[in-house]
Each structure stands twice: as C-alpha cells, then as structure tokens.
C-alpha cells in the first residue's frame, strides 16, 4: 500500500490504494445529502414496521398498530381487521367519495320508476355508466359485450326484437327469474318432404324466396294439427311472448343462421335443421337463489338494456 497523498486540486487525501501504478482512490467523506437520505430511510422503515404489517413471527407476523380498517363482507357482516390492501379496497369501495356518490345514485334509481329514470338526464347517464359494468359482469359472456348475441345460441339484445316481451316489467322478470326457451324437435313428426314444405312456408313468412307448391303444403302443416306450429307462433307467424316463440315474419333470426346463408338452398337447410332438431336454451336466474342481484341492480340492468335496445332501434 502506498503512502496516502493529498490531491493537489481538492486537498483530499487518497486511501493509499494504487492500481496500474498511478490509479488512486480518494478518501472523500460521504455526501451530506446522501447520509441524511440514508438516515431518513432507516427512520421510515422503523415507523413502517410499527404502523403496518411487516416482520414474520413464527406462523404469524407483526400486524402494526393504529391501522384498523372496518368494512362489510359480501355476506353483509361488519369486519374489522388490520391494514391490508384487500381490506382497504373493500373499505374504499363502500365508503370512498365515489362509492358514496354511487350509493346515493343507486338509492335514487331504486326509488324511481322506469319512466322517471328515462326522463331524468342524470339518472339515465348513471344507468348507462353503471349498467355497462353490470352487463359486462353478468351478460356479456353470452350476449357479447355489445349485446349483439350469437345466432343459434344467445339472442340479440339490441335489435328491438324480444322473444319474451320488451317492456321494462317483462325484461325485469326475465332477468330476475331467468327463461327456458324450448321448441320440440320434429325429427320424428315430419318426413323429409314435410320438413322441406314447412321450412319453405316459414321462409315465405318473412318474404324469403321459396318454392310455391312447397309453401302451400307447408302452410297446411303449419296451420294444421300435423305440425301445430301456429299454437306457439300464431296463425300469422308473429310469435307469442308468453311462450317465447319467435316472430317468423320480421326477418330477425335468432336460431337459424340465415344471415350467413348465401343461397336459397342454404337458407332452406338452415331452417330445416332448426325444425328437425328443435331448440332448447336457458337463461339463468339473476334474482334470489340465482346470481342474487339486488332489486336495484336488476332495475339498473333493465333500464340499461332498454336504453341499448332503443338507441339501436333509432
């Protein structure tokens, strides 16, 4: 080790360490700002250890002091615990400024009629904002995020065409109690010729091209006891809300994928497949004993769906 020398410019001594004959290390003190920052981090760590969960002790850990958080669980029970992110999030979701404002609007919407909600710009805006989240959480998995549904599986909710009725009370009932959509399979009722005739008649109801002779025979089956289709779809083919039977005259197809059929034969085959196989689909219960949405949440979702449908229909 070489003898420490002083730097001629700064006057600082070297540590005496020398590398490559001339490279030396100055023995400067640590910068004052760095030292105070270092001491500050130590003080912060000690305070944090005292106030917040920190060091493990056996199978537990230090939970901190003076940091209790009270919130309500999903079961509605009040719970007090030490500070943690989950409890803090639950508390803020229930008691934060935004949460309280949201709660105020929910109470306002819950006490209003659907007509009052539609007529009030603030409540309508709240329904649109809050409803889109509810729709995403509860409906979008089947009906898609935009409510356009999936042909053959889940109905379109934004085309102003409702299988069970589109007034607010019926929509609310559908959400609260769920629906069971059912059309029997006619595979053992119709032979191939009859199947083609009935499908041709069904296509003709919405103005689709079909063989005239087959349409005439299909009408007899549709309106007669052999098929009995009129019992649910009515003699005019306009459907029946009470049965969830589709209107066959409005060119809106929820099961047979006619929009994807490029030829007359493809359209005929699509309708024949539905008649042959029947329809069975179920919408779950979102009220009591189902998803357990509250009355107000169901009302918001109902108003939101009506908004979606009416805006698209315009």
Structure, described:
This protein is mostly helical. Helices cover 47% and strands 10% of the residues. It contains twelve helices and eight strands. The chain has helices at 32-51, 85-95, 97-111, 114-119, 121-138, 140-143, 168-177, 192-205, 212-223, 230-233, 264-277, 295-313; strands at 14-19, 23-26, 56-57, 60-61, 69-72, 78-81, 179-183, 279-283. The strands form four sheets. A two-stranded antiparallel ribbon has the order 1-2. The radius of gyration is 35 Å and the shape is elongated. The termini are far apart. The relative contact order is 0.11. The mean pLDDT is 92. InterPro entries: CcoP_N, CcoP_N_sf, Cyt_c-like_dom, Cyt_c-like_dom_sf, Cyt_C_IC, Cyt_c_oxidase_cbb3_su3, Cytochrome_c_Oxidase_Subunit. Pfam families: Cytochrom_C, Cytochrome_CBB3, FixP_N.
Tag the structure with descriptive keywords:
single chain; 314 residues; mainly alpha; two-stranded antiparallel ribbon; 12 helices; 8 strands; 10% strand; elongated
């Amino acid at each position: 080790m070489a003898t420490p020398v002083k730097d001629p410019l700064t006057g600082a001594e070297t540590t005496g360490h020398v590398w490559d004959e001339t490279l030396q290390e100055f023995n400067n003190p640590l910068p004052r700002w760095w030292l105070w920052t270092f001491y500050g981090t130590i003080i912060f760590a000690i305070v944090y250890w005292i106030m917040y969960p920190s060091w493990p002790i056996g199978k537990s850990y230090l939970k901190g002091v003076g940091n209790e958080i009270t919130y309500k669980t999903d079961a509605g029970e009040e719970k007090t615990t030490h500070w943690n992110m989950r409890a803090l999030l639950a508390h803020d979701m229930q008691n934060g400024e935004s949460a309280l404002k949201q709660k105020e609007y929910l109470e306002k919407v819950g006490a209003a009629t659907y007509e009052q909600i539609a007529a009030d710009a603030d409540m309508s805006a709240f329904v649109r904002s809050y409803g889109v989240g509810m729709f995403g959480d509860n409906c979008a998995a089947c009906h898609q995020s935009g409510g356009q549904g999936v042909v053959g599986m889940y109905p379109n909710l934004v085309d102003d065409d409702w299988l069970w009725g589109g007034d607010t009370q019926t929509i609310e009932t559908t959400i609260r109690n769920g629906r069971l959509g059912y059309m029997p399979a006619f595979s053992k009722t119709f032979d191939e010729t009859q199947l083609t005739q009935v499908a041709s008649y069904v296509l003709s109801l919405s103005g689709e091209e079909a063989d005239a002779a087959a349409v005439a025979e299909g009408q007899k089956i549709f309106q007669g006891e052999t098929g009995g289709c009129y019992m649910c779809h009515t003699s005019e083919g306009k459907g029946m809300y009470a049965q969830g039977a589709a209107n066959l005259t409005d060119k809106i197809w929820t099961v047979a994928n006619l929009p994807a059929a490029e030829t007359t034969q493809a359209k005929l085959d699509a309708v024949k497949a539905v008649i042959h196989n029947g329809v069975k689909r179920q919408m779950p219960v979102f009220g009591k004993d189902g998803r357990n949405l509250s009355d107000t949440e169901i009302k918001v979702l109902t108003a939101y769906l009506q908004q979606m449908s009416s805006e698209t229909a315009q």
